[in-house]
Amino acid sequence: MTIAQVLSAIQLGLIYGLLAMGLYIPFRILNIADMTVQGSFTLGMIVSAVFAYDYLPLVGILVACLSGAVAGLVTGILHTKFNIASILSGILTMTALYTINLLVAGGKANISLIGKETLYSMIDQYVGNEDISKTILTLFIVVVVTTILAVFFRTRTGLTIRATGNNSAMVRHTSINTDNMIMIGLCIGNALTAFSGALIAHYNLFADVNSGSGILVVALAAIIIGETIFRRNGVTKGLISTVIGSVIYRFIFAIALKFDVLPSYSLNLISTIIVILALMVPTIQDANIRRRKKQLHKNLAKKWLENDDLNQVNIDSLNINQKEK
To answer: How many CA atoms lie within 13 A of 98 on its CB side?
Structure first.
């Protein structure tokens, strides 16, 4: 791989790391299967592209994050106030967002940002090197967002959201409104997802209403890879491992394309294979641990029996010697 390809994998891995963290919050912290992220990712792309097209890139990113938060809020209301299953609530919101994305895009399937000012082009004016400016800016954004989230989930509200995911019944007994905690968590998660989509639009210089297809598997792959390597050790480490897992996933994907293992249009298939393999690793490891423990117990039992037989022989010999005396 060339330096440009390595930097590209790092840049995309960091940007999709925001998406993965957006899924990590409902999926791991709240224990909710949120399908909204697939729609809110595209929503972030379209909204930011529309504003960037009108030379308002920074405003577009902010509005994109707010739009994603609203999408998460809708899913939260459907789930908590109308008792619709979380996965169905997400699917309903995601389906509705497809039409909303087309409306925001003015009925067009895609928006080109070639020749328009973007967040990356603004920074590149001062750095002068596109690859370096993209890497530094993306890394800075991810570090800041991860730090803010890590601090937030140590505050009273953040701890309450974590407790809601662990045991909502116990939290309700303390007179805390768990519905509000769920909605806050979904808003934060989908705002992050939309932020990732907005950065992707600025990075690729275009936005497409079909770009969110299969993006849920990409985010899940990052989470599973991170947990497979670093295990689940708290929210802060979970967020960091998710970002690292996203970068590793992009490298795996880049290598697969580099050696022509699969064609370039097989992103979803590669993502699915990676997720399946990552999910299989802990199971295989646990099976090996159980097998080793079983073998150890067998060896210990065998040694105990051998020692027991030896002791019995010694006792018999002692009894014979006493009788001879």
So the answer is: 11
Rg (CA), the chain: 27
Residue-wise pLDDT tens digits, 186-208: 999 999 999 999 999 999 999 99
- The residue type of 45 is M
d(CA 175, CA 11): 44
Longest dimension (CA), the chain: 111
DSSP 8-state class, residue 114: T
300 burial type by CB count under 10 A (0-12 exposed, 13-18 middle, 19+ buried): exposed
**pTM of the predicted structure, to 2 decimals:** 0.87
Which of 98, 103, 94 is CA-nearest to residue 50?
103
Quick: pLDDT tens for 280-299.
Answer: 877 887 888 888 888 887 87
Scanning the chain, the segments in alpha helix (DSSP H) are 3-24, 37-53, 57-80, 86-104, 119-127, 130-152, 156-166, 168-172, 178-204, 215-230, 234-258, 267-324
- Give the residue-averaged pLDDT of 159-173: 92
| Residue appearing with tokens 């670093």 | 230
Residue 245 Cα to chain centre, angstroms: 8
**pLDDT class for 304, splitting at 50, 70, 90?**
low
- DSSP structure string for 81-102: TS---HHHHHHHHHHHHHHHHH
Structural domains present in the chain: 3-261 (1.10.3470)
* pLDDT reading at 263 higher than 90: no
Contact between residue 205 and residue 118 where contact means Cβ atoms under 8 Å apart: yes
Q: Which contiguous run of DSSP H or E holds residue 111?
A: strand 110-112
